[in-house]
Amino acid sequence: MSSSDTASNSPGWTTVDPDEFQKHSETQWTHDAPPLIAIVGMATRLPGGISSPQDFWQFMIDKKCASAPVPAGRYNVDAFHGTPGVDTQSVIAKQGFFLEGDYLGKVDTSFFHNNRYEHGFIDPQQVLLSEVVWECMENGGQVDWQGKDIGCFVGTFGEDWLDLTAKDTQNLSPLHIVGTGDYAASNRVSFEYDLKGPCMTCRTACSSSLVALHEACQAITLGDCPSAIVGGSSLIFTPTMTTNMSQAGALSPDGICKTFDAEANGYARAEGVCVLYIKKLEDAIRDKDPVRAVIRAVATNFDGRTNHITVPSSAGQEALIRKAYRKAHLENLAETAFVECHGTATRVSDVVETTAVANAFGRHPMIVGGVKSNIGHTEGAAGLAGLIKAVLALEHKQIPPNVNFSTPNPKILFDEAGLTVPVDVLPWPTDRKERVSVNCFGVGGTNAHVIVDSAASLMPQKAIAALETNNNSPRLLPLSASGPKSLDQRAIDIKKYLSRHHEAVHDLAYTLCEKREHLRHRAFAVTGGEVPLESIEFVKADNTRNGPKNVTFAFPGQGAQWAGMGSELMENFMSFRKDIEYMDGVLQSLPNAPMWRMHEELIKTGPESDINRPDIAQPLCTAIQISLVNLLKVWGITPDKVIGHSSGEFAAAYAANALSMDTAIILAYTRGIVANMAPEGGMLAVGVGRDSIGQYLGDEVALACENSPNSVTLAGKRDQLEQVATRIQTEQPDTLLKMLPVERAYHSGRSLGISFRCSQLPC
Fold it and tell me: Which stretches make up the Ketosynthase family 3 (KS3) domain (predicted)?
């Protein structure tokens, strides 16, 4: 599984500052209106090779139509093709809209909880839907979501897999119970991902997926679940439903949707899977989720009794549109910029629907469109396909064109009603809100309507959170997948994405690190240097990982410092620099404030640096360590355990939440002042164990630290330590020896006499 819509902060997406949003929301919306619902994630599989929302947008902008011959792998169209009414059980068109690639035939069984045998009985619609759900959650930057109280609402159309497998009476199995019925589509998703919220499949024909969205929004509003996955799916395996639709006169003989056109002669059936992840807007902002758009209201109704159950009602649809706007407490319908119609291109429905739109919106000028002209009628997924189109239009502030539209249908009152069908990309109307209505209706009379606003339009500009990045700094791009082939595909997708979006590399790095589940098979790449982004190479890990390993932070004491340490971090990461400046301010507020400043000392290099002086080294080392802890936390790296040595214990205690930042830096500063009062001395690191070092100890050389079975540190007078080092080098020439850059003999008898001075300091 893969998704090329990769970065959670791509252009057009919105992240929001919670405090600014709260100030704005207190006065912006009516309290008795339904809660605003954020669309956090989106994913698709649509005809024309569309495998992501980004692909979908480009497909529409390029004015493409995905009509194609019925694939040989579905059914033998030549054997069934004929003229309805003349040839019984015939399909009227040899064309349609079908998914490309191996989505139906190949399954990454390592990812799912069923073995290969079980997968042979499961409707591929269930499997593909589960894959697209995963991509949707990745698209929304969700991690650790499995096993949670998340609802699942799915709209479907038809039972082709049941129809196909029922013919093979020699291959029946108990697995057919939940493997073939479309009612189990939502159940399969919830089972695969261990979801505990409400779970249901909606079957209202062509309006199924928007009805599922309505049920999901209701469940969130009523508190049945805090968030929900909403899906719609339709796959075509047999000619049965196509035959029935052909006999009913609903399908186009040429397999093309000519929505609103004078030549419209029915719709063309299409395959598709669309998925959204939604939650309350305030919750999405709290969780720092990307917000792709905001649902103001969703409403449903039924046409009532018309001339026939399959005949739509203009009055019924008009009433629904008005109902949705009342529900959202939006009085001026004319502020809406665009209506994405159901647009099935049948003789009756286009006229009925546009009449309803014209009447509901007061016959003010209105742009209308229908995505079925691009991708066909995806039936169970049709409502969500139109909604995803609307969200993409809001993000790009453009309205995509209709294709297969040349001569307006004379029965549609375009001029009288002020309706316009775009044939080229249109900029967003400056006199309208960033708002779209999406209309949908089922062949049996169930209608659904959703109103969606851009996220950015609902809050002041200062509430939009900006990400601070340094474009010259390297970035880590980690990848993971459930299998090696999937990992290879992910690497291809990332390189493809970077080739088109060089500017998004920092957002991409954040998303891959923080907003992705990390699966068993892993790889990484580092950006930066002279290598073009699209040419980076991913390095695969030698071993697989089943889960995260415990992380331990180790904090050394004085002796690990060097002149200029931290200067690049301060230059590249503002949060790191602010932490240094904050701790400097804490020390400057003390009665015995230092005469030096942290930032100035850290950027000194060479002989001018006093980094080895105890009263400077200890607070600076602690400040660097604390700032690193905070920076790593921003990147999502936190310790499971901490260990500190010597003055490193202060930062370790801070990392363990045992000390505040203020207390830790004051203690380090105080210890440095006291250590500076001790007699001069030195420390020597030796690569031998405790048992082997005893012969080199004396009155002026002590064992200060036992670091490991093969490493100790000695402390004492510097000249005595140098003599010991010379002796060890002579007797054991392969032994590691290092004189530490310290000016005191810490952890030895030479520092015992100064501990009482801590209580005498004014800080």
Answer: 34-454
Banded model confidence at residue 277, pLDDT cuts 50, 70, 90? very high
Place of tokens 């200890």: 618
Q: Name which of 24-28, 128-132, 365-369, 555-559 the model is least confident about.
A: 24-28
**Distance from C-alpha of 585 to C-alpha of 598, rounded to nearest angstrom:** 9
- Which of 373-396 are b and which e, b meaning 16 or more Cβ less than 10 Å from the residue's Cβ? bbbbbbbbbbbbbbbbbbbbbbbb
Sheet of 701-708, strand order: 701-708, 711-716, 682-686, 737-739
**CATH assignment of the domain containing 267:** 3.40.47.10
In contact, 161 and 125? CB cutoff 8 Å: yes
Mean pLDDT of the region 549-570: 87
| Residues 222 and 326 placed together within one structural domain of the fold | yes
- The verdict on 443 and 315 lying in the same domain is yes
548: how many CB neighbours lie within 10 A of its CB?
Answer: 8
Q: Is the dihedral of CA 166, 171, 173, 176 positive or negative?
A: negative
Answer whether 736's CB lies under 8 Å from 685's CB: yes
Distance (Å, whole) CA 248 – CA 183:
25
Supply 127's token pair: 């499997």
> SS3 for 491?
helix
Q: Taking 50 as the threshold, does the pLDDT of residue 11 lie above it? A: no
239 shares a domain with 211: yes
Write down the residue that tokens 């080294």 correspond to. Answer: 617
* Whether 336 and 419 share a structural domain: yes
Average pLDDT, integer, range 395-404: 97
Assess whether pLDDT exceeds 50 at residue 230.
Answer: yes
Decide: 277 and 227 in contact? Cβ < 8 Å: yes
Confidence of residue 611 (pLDDT cuts 50, 70, 90): confident
How far separated are the first and last CA of the chain, in Å rounded?
59
Which DSSP category does 461 fall into?
G
Q: Is the pLDDT of residue 726 over 50?
A: yes
At 617, which amino acid appears?
A: A
Whose tokens are 């070092």? That residue is 693
* Spatial distance between the Cα atoms of 132 and 44, rounded to a whole number of angstroms: 7
Residue whose pair of structure tokens reads 């479907």 in the numeric block:
156
User: Quick one: pLDDT at residue 699?
Assistant: 84
- Residue-range definition of the domain harbouring residue 708: 682-741
Residue 260 vs residues 403, 422, 451: alpha-carbon distances, Å:
10, 11, 22
Q: Model-level pTM?
A: 0.79
Tell me: do 428 and 532 sit in the same domain: no
User: Is residue 534 situated within a structural domain?
Assistant: yes
Looking at 282-401, which runs of residues are DSSP E strands? 293-302, 338-340, 366-369, 398-399
The single-letter code of the amino acid at 668 is A
The pLDDT of residue 408: 96
d(CA 624, CA 758): 23
Q: Do 573 and 722 lie in a common domain? A: no
Band (pLDDT 50/70/90 cuts) for residue 506 is confident
**Confidence (pLDDT) at 182:** 83
For 223, residues 6+ apart whose C-beta sits below 8 A from its C-beta are none
Distance, CA of 617 to CA of 605 (rounded, Å) = 14
For residue range 594-604, what is the model confidence (pLDDT) as tens digits?
999 999 989 88
Write a three-state SS string for 114-163. Answer: CCHHHHCCCCHHHHHHHHHHHHHHHHCCCCCCCCCCEEEEEEECCCHHHH
How far are the Cα atoms of 5, 289, 296, 455, 575 from residue 285, in angstroms, in the given order? 21, 6, 16, 11, 21
In the predicted model, is pLDDT for residue 22 greater than 80?
no
**Rounded-to-integer distance, Cα 430 and Cα 130, Å:** 40
Top pLDDT among 743 and 198 is at 198
